[in-house]
Structures are given as structure tokens and as C-alpha cells.
């Protein structure tokens, strides 16, 4: 689809907003719950579609559908808890009311790495608030989005309330620009690369549009001397290799204190060798291919740059071409130095790097030495250290002795160049409502 189709979708969403905004919270809660029920009932088919279009192993696709559905369930409940305030007035004849209203048409641009959950996290909140949506899924994963839309209409979400614009790569930029600049669109929420996020930020400036940005991360994963190696290895594997490393909150830099370095590295190497990579529909496969050639080239070149500059691959370090052209071996690099790309860039692939440090302050300093601030992780059994480090880390989300932090109940989002706003939790609705102060005089 292209800009003309987008124009049609925006007009349909604006038209549908005229009535959807006046539905009661209870009605919206009901219809979202119906959608959730259908998404649950069709969960295996959606997982199969996702695996077919993205290569994600079925076991991960199933987990994502459960995860994505839980946002629709959560926001079906939250719809009825969007509360205003009655404020104490300084003048007896005046009353002050603060109400929250839906912003209008919300444009949602989503990535390929979580084709269902990233739509669910945005659309669930928008629809609960009383907004209508125009969703532009990533070019690699349009079918999951269309399946969700099919079920949305079956669930009774009225025509025009939830619209999908699919596109190829060539049309993504013009569709994005159109959504940013169209005055009928009240707000835009984007998950994807920092480069595109910055472009959308600039494009939205002309109309001072409401903006939510979930951008790239560069998560440190610190293992302190006080850590439990077993727990740290388990968390490291989950955080790094989930979705073949193509996750914005994936651990990107392992920082390991000198006293625990050898035992952590040995344990990590053993577990990485056990990862079963292959075609997503094969039983037992836990890790699939990279999404496309661009991702494959990016991952290969980042690793090659590190190897050329003296890093050592304890596991992997090359493509797994016998499995297919987009497979890259789970990799562990040591002797990583500041002059290597992998030290600074978000790899977005199955590549773990380890840097050794001595003192706690040094570990924290390296962890914070990035312009990104999405997630950060650390492992320690020392309670005082838990408080010191979680306060000191410059990130929107911190996992303490935990490698998987995403859940609809908690606010997801970053600081610094990792984005604006929060998704999920009760804060997730804020992007889709505005506060209106109503002053009633002469009472
Ligand atoms: N934060 C995340 O969850 C996330 C997700 C995907 C990719 N990434 C990062 O981005 C890198 C590149 O991946 P990518 O190229 O698919 O991400 P991307 O940011 O280019 O794509 C994400 C979405 O934005 C759309 N898009 C692309 N260019 C656009 C434009 N000019 N205007 C409006 N929309 C546009 C795409 O069609 C897709 O829907 C990855 O290596 C990774 O570092 C991050
Ligand atoms: N992995 C994130 C989304 C971005 O990649 C999540 O856990 O929700």
C-alpha cells in the first residue's frame, strides 16, 4: 500500500473517532475482551503465521502471542480505570474538574521483531482510551498484523477503528511522513531503530504531534563478584538469545568483574553451545534465523570488525550457512576493546561480548557510557549493592538478578536516545489521552 491508501485509512479512522470516542469505557472494555478471547482461541494459527513470515521458532512465536495477547487483556481492564480529578477550588463559586479525553487518531508504526506484541501494546492502550488507529506494521511481517485485524473485526471493533496499512520498504518513508504531517493524526507511536525514530521526531515537530518512541537499546549486563553464577548464566542466555538477539532490551554488553570472570565465561560457553538453532517449525529448535539480509550483513560485519581488531570468538563467529543463508551461529566474543564497533553498537543478533572490569565504579561507568538508556541488568547477591547499582544505572528499566523484564503490568520505555514515554502498565494509556481542565463558575 502507499500514501493514497494511508489517506483513506486516516480518513476512515477520523470518521470512526466521531463515534468511538463517545462509547463508554465499559463498552470498550467489553469489545477489547472479546478481541482478547478470539486472539487466545486462535493463538496457534497466529503463531504459525508469525513463524512462517519471520522465521521465529514456533516455541517463541507461541510465547509472543501469549505475551501480546496479555496487553489486550490488560488494557481491556485498564479502560475502566482512566480517572479524572475534582480539585479543591480557591473560590467557593468555582469548581475545578480535570478530565481525560482521547487524543483522536493514533498512528502506530511497528517493527518486525515482535510482529504481534508491539501492535498489541500500542493498539490496546489507544483503543482503551477511545482513540482510533492506523497501524503500519513492518514490511517483513504484515500477515500477523492482518490476522490481528481480522479478529478485531470479528470481535466487534467497528469498521474504521483499527486500520492496517501494509507497505514495502520503498513506501515506508513516504507513509511515515504522511502520518507525521497529517493534521487528522493526533499522535504517533513508533518502535524501531533510533535513526528512524529521530526522523519521525523531526517530522512530527511541524504539527507538535503527540509522540511515543521506543527505540534501540545497548543494554549492559553486569555480573559482579557477588553474583550467583548459575542464576547469572541463565539470565544472560534468556536476555541475549531470546528472538535470536533481535530484541531492543537484549543484553548487548556483558561486563564481568575479575573475580567471577572465569567461572561465568566457562558456564556461559557451555550453555551457548547447547542452543538448538534451525528452522522454526522443527521440534526442539529454540533459535531461528535473522530476519533479513540487511540484518545478516549488519551482524556479520560487526563481528568481523571485532575479530579483525583482535577479539577472540570462544563460540561461533561465523554464519551457520548449512542451515540457510540468514542463519548466524550463536557467538561469544572476548577481548573486546573500545575501538571495535561491537563495543558501542546495538548488535541485534545472537552475539554476546564480554568485557572484564575490576572495581564496582568502573563497571557502572562502562555500563553508562552510551547514549542509549533502555534496559540494564545486573547480578549480585549483595543487597546494598542492589540498591546502589539500580539507582546508578542510566536506564528506563533495570533487571536485578533477572534477564526477562517485559510484562504488561510494568512500564516499558527508555531514557536518553532510547525514547520517550512508557508503554504497558497504567502509564501506557497516557500517550493516548490529554488532560482537560474544566472550570465551572457561578456555582
Ligand atoms: N527497538 C526495537 O524494538 C527495534 C526493532 C526493529 C529494529 N530495531 C533496530 O533497527 C535496526 C534496523 O532495523 P529496521 O531497519 O527494520 O528498523 P526500522 O526502524 O527501519 O523499521 C521499523 C519500522 O519503521 C518503518 N520505517 C522504516 N523507515 C521509515 C521511515 N523513514 N519513516 C517511517 N517509518 C519507517 C519500517 O517499515 C518498520 O515498520 C536493527 O538493527 C535494530 O538495531 C530496533
Ligand atoms: N523486546 C521488547 C520489545 C522490543 O524489542 C519486549 O520485550 O517487549
What features would you describe in this structure?
This protein is of the alpha/beta class and 443 residues long. The protein contains 14 helices and 18 strands. The strands form 4 sheets. A 7-stranded mixed β-sheet has the order 10-11-12-9-8-14-15, sandwiched between helices. Strands 5-4-3-6-7-17 form a 6-stranded mixed β-sheet, sandwiched between helices. The protein has a 3-stranded antiparallel β-sheet with strand order 1-2-18, with no helix packed on it. The protein is globular and about 75 Å long. Pfam families: Aldedh.
What's the SSE blueprint?
Layout: H1 3-20, H2 25-41, H3 43-54, H4 58-78, E1 85-87, E2 95-102, E3 105-109, H5 117-129, E4 132-136, H6 142-154, E5 162-164, H7 169-181, E6 185-191, H8 194-205, E7 210-214, E8 219-223, H9 229-241, E9 251-257, H10 261-273, H11 293-308, E10 312-315, E11 331-334, H12 341-344, E12 351-357, H13 360-368, E13 372-373, E14 375-379, H14 383-392, E15 397-400, E16 415-416, E17 419-420, E18 433-440
Parallel strand pairs: 3-4, 3-6, 4-5, 6-7, 8-9, 8-14, 9-12, 11-12, 14-15
Antiparallel strand pairs: 1-2, 2-18, 7-17, 10-11, 13-16
Helix pairs in contact: 1-7, 2-4, 2-5, 2-6, 3-4, 3-6, 4-5, 7-8, 9-10
The chain binds nicotinamide-adenine-dinucleotide (NAD) and the ligand N[C@@H](CC=O)C(=O)O.
The ligand N[C@@H](CC=O)C(=O)O binds at residues 113-114, 117, 247-249, 406.
Pathway: Amino-acid degradation; 4-aminobutanoate degradation
GO molecular function: succinate-semialdehyde dehydrogenase (NAD+) activity
Active site: 214
Amino acid at each position: 500500500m502507499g500514501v493514497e491508501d494511508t489517506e483513506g485509512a486516516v480518513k476512515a479512522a477520523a470518521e470512526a473517532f466521531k463515534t468511538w470516542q463517545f462509547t463508554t469505557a465499559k463498552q470498550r472494555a467489553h469489545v477489547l475482551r472479546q478481541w482478547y478471547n478470539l486472539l487466545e482461541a486462535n493463538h496457534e494459527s497466529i503463531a504459525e503465521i508469525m513463524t512462517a513470515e519471520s522465521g521465529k521458532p514456533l516455541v517463541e512465536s507461541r510465547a509472543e502471542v501469549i505475551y501480546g495477547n496479555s496487553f489486550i487483556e490488560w488494557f481491556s481492564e485498564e479502560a475502566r480505570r482512566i480517572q479524572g480529578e475534582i480539585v479543591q477550588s480557591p473560590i467557593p463559586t468555582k469548581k475545578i474538574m480535570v478530565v481525560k479525553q482521547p487524543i483522536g487518531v493514533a498512528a502506530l508504526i511497528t517493527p518486525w521483531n515482535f510482529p504481534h506484541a508491539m501492535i498489541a501494546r500500542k493498539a490496546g492502550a489507544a483503543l482503551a482510551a477511545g482513540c482510533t488507529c492506523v497501524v503500519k506494521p513492518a514490511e517483513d511481517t504484515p500477515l500477523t498484523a492482518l490476522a490481528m485485524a481480522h479478529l478485531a473485526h470479528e470481535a466487534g471493533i467497528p469498521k474504521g477503528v483499527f486500520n492496517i496499512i501494509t507497505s514495502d520498504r520503498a513506501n515506508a518513508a513516504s507513509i511515515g511522513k504522511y502520518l507525521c504531517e497529517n493534521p487528522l493524526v493526533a499522535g504517533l507511536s513508533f518502535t524501531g531503530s533510533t535513526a528512524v525514530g529521530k526522523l519521525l521526531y523531526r517530522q512530527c515537530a511541524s504539527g507538535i504531534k503527540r509522540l511515543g518512541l521506543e527505540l534501540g537499546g545497548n543494554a549492559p549486563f553486569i555480573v559482579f563478584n557477588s553474583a550467583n553464577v548459575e542464576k547469572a548464566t541463565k539470565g544472560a542466555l534468556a536476555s541475549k538469545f531470546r528472538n535470536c538477539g533481535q530484541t531492543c532490551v537484549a543484553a548487548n554488553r556483558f561486563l564481568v568483574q575479575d573475580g567471577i570472570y572465569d567461572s561465568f565465561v566457562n558456564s556461559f560457553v557451555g550453555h551457548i553451545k547447547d542452543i538448538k538453532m534451525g528452522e522454526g517449525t522443527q521440534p526442539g529448535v529454540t533459535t531461528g534465523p535473522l530476519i533479513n539480509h540487511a540484518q545478516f550483513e549488519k551482524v556479520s560485519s560487526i563481528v568481523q570488525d571485532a575479530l579483525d581488531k583482535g577479539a577472540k570468538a570462544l563460540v561461533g563467529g561465523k554464519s551457520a550457512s548449512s542451515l540457510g543463508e540468514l542463519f548466524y551461529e550463536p557467538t561469544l566474543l572476548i577481548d573486546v576493546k573500545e575501538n571495535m564497533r561491537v563495543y558501542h553498537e546495538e548488535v541485534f543478533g545472537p552475539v554476546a561480548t564480554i568485557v572484564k572490569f575490576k572495581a564496582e565504579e568502573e563497571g557502572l561507568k562502562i555500563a553508562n557510557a552510551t547514549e542509549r538508556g533502555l534496559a540494564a541488568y545486573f547480578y549480585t547477591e549483595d543487597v546494598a549493592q542492589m540498591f546502589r547499582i539500580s539507582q546508578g544505572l542510566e536506564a528506563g528499566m533495570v533487571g536485578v538478578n533477572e534477564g526477562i523484564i517485559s510484562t504488561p503490568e510494568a512500564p516499558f520505555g527508555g531514557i536518553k536516545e532510547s525514547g520517550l514515554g512508557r508503554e504497558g502498565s497504567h502509564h501506557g494509556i497516557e500517550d493516548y489521552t490529554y488532560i482537560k481542565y474544566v472550570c465551572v463558575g457561578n456555582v
